[in-house]
Amino acid sequence: MGNPYRIRPIMPSEKLPQSVTVRKLVDSRAILVGDVVPERLPRVGDAVLALSSNFQVELEFGLNDSKKSKIDVQINGNVEMQCQRCLNPVTLDVAIATTLTVAAHDEEARAQIKDYEPILLNDEGVLDIDSLIEEEILLNLPLVAMHPEATKDAESSNARQEEAFNSVLANKPVQEIERRSDMGMDNPFDVLKTLKAGDGQEQM
After folding, report:
1. How do the residues of the chain divide into helix, strand and coil, expressed in percent and rounded to 5?
2. How far apart are CA 147 and CA 48, in angstroms?
3. How does pLDDT run across 8-30, given as a tens digit for each residue?
4. How far is CA 143 from CA 2, 78, 154, in A?
5. How many whole angstroms separate alpha carbon 111 and alpha carbon 109?
6. Which terminus of the chain faces fewer neighbouring Cβ atoms within 10 Å, N or C?
7. How far apart are CA 99 and CA 1, in angstroms?
8. Exposure of 38 by Cβ count < 10 A (0-12 exposed, 13-18 middle, 19+ buried)?
9. Are the CB atoms for 7 and 33 separated by under 8 Å?
10. Where are the domains positioned within the chain?
């Protein structure tokens, strides 16, 4: 009898379940593939301007090298955010590939966080798929959204500013000497002349 959970590929119109029992899926090395509609991701909807299409999601269940339950996660789709340069909508691709390690409780999650990205289940060992997808998308949204052209312009502007700053630093010793002279302070070049004269050499 075939594995009832190994359902790759699925027609894109099919939807992922909202929750699953992880242990059963890990034991059978299940792979779930399907779509998640925007209505199932309200927190993402609140963080962006619009969710115009479904997200394609693949969840592969198994064990890692330490025999801990893991979930390989792939999420693909797009969101609309506000460009911080022109304030118009900009469509951003979402392409996430990560591995989550199942933790039994908060203390285990804190212990694992140095080596793995942990995920907690509820008391019945059930995974909330929608919550998982929301967390991963929110973590991967940019802090500042811009159109690609605006990003290039910003990088070019930053490069010009850095070049100008470096130029100011390069000319600073000369500028400092000129200011010292204007204020009646000793010019280090004049001190150098005096030293050479004292050595009996020709003055500059």
Report:
1. 40, 25, 35
2. 15
3. 443 344 688 999 999 889 999 99
4. 45, 16, 15
5. 5
6. N
7. 29
8. middle
9. yes
10. 19-146, 151-198
pLDDT at 119: 83
Q: What is the reported pTM?
A: 0.64
Lookup result for tokens 């050499």: 201
Q: What is the pLDDT of residues 158-201, one digit of tens each?
A: 556 666 556 655 555 555 545 545 555 555 445 445 444 555 55
Strand partners, 34: 57
The owner of tokens 């959970």 is 5
E-strand stretches of the chain: 19-21, 31-36, 55-63, 69-82, 89-103, 117-120, 126-128
CA distances from 180 to 66, 134, 167, 196 (A): 68, 61, 20, 21
114-145 residue pLDDT tens: 556 778 788 788 899 999 999 999 999 998 88
